[in-house]
C-alpha cells in the first residue's frame, strides 16, 4: 500500500505557472504508475496526465497537452505536475493517484489516492 500527499496548489493569475508535487510513502514507489487528476465543482473527476513506473511513458489529456508536464523522481518518491499557461478553466482540486506499474487512462483503474490540492486560476 502507498500513501500519497499532494502539495503546491494555490491561487495564480491566468497565464501563470504552478508546480504540484505528490510525495509517496513506502519503498515501492518506483513500482507504481502515477496519474494526475482534477475535479472542478459540479464535474466528474478527470485524468489529465499519466506516467509509467520508469517515467519513460507519459500521456496527456488534450485539454492540457503542451501546457502541463508530468515527471517523477523515484529517488525522492515524488511525482510532479508542472502547469504553465494556466487558464481559469484549469481551476479544480488536483489529485494524484497510483496503480500498478503500467499507466492507465481510467479513473477507476487507480488504487491509491491523495487528498487533493486546490488550484485556482483567476482571470
Would you mind describing this structure in some detail?
This protein is an all-beta fold and 123 residues long. The chain is built from no helices and eleven strands. The mean pLDDT is 95.
Number of helices: 0
For the termini, the CA-CA separation is 40 Å
Which value, in Å, is the CA radius of gyration? Answer: 13 Å
Beta-strand percentage? Answer: over 45%
Question: How many strand units?
Answer: 11
Structural class: mainly beta
Contiguous low-pLDDT stretches (5 residues minimum) are none
Descriptive terms for the model:
mainly beta; 123 residues; four-stranded antiparallel β-sheet
Topology:
Blueprint: E1 4-7, E2 10-13, E3 18-24, E4 33-39, E5 46-51, E6 58-60, E7 68-73, E8 78-83, E9 92-99, E10 112-113, E11 117-122
Parallel strand pairs: 2-11
Antiparallel strand pairs: 1-3, 3-8, 4-5, 4-9, 5-6, 7-8, 9-10, 9-11
In short:
It contains no helices and eleven strands.
Amino acid at each position: 500500500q502507498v500513501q500519497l500527499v499532494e502539495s503546491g496548489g494555490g491561487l495564480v493569475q491566468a497565464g501563470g505557472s504552478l508546480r504540484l508535487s505528490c510525495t509517496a510513502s513506502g519503498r515501492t514507489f518506483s513500482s507504481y504508475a502515477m496519474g494526475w487528476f482534477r475535479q472542478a465543482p459540479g464535474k466528474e473527476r478527470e485524468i489529465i496526465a499519466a506516467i509509467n513506473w520508469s517515467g519513460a511513458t507519459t500521456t496527456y489529456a488534450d485539454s492540457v497537452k503542451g501546457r502541463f508536464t508530468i515527471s517523477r523522481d523515484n529517488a525522492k518518491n515524488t511525482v510532479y505536475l508542472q502547469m504553465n499557461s494556466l487558464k481559469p478553466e484549469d481551476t479544480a482540486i488536483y489529485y494524484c493517484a497510483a496503480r500498478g506499474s503500467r499507466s492507465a487512462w481510467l479513473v477507476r483503474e487507480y488504487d491509491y489516492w491523495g487528498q487533493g490540492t486546490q488550484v485556482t486560476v483567476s482571470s
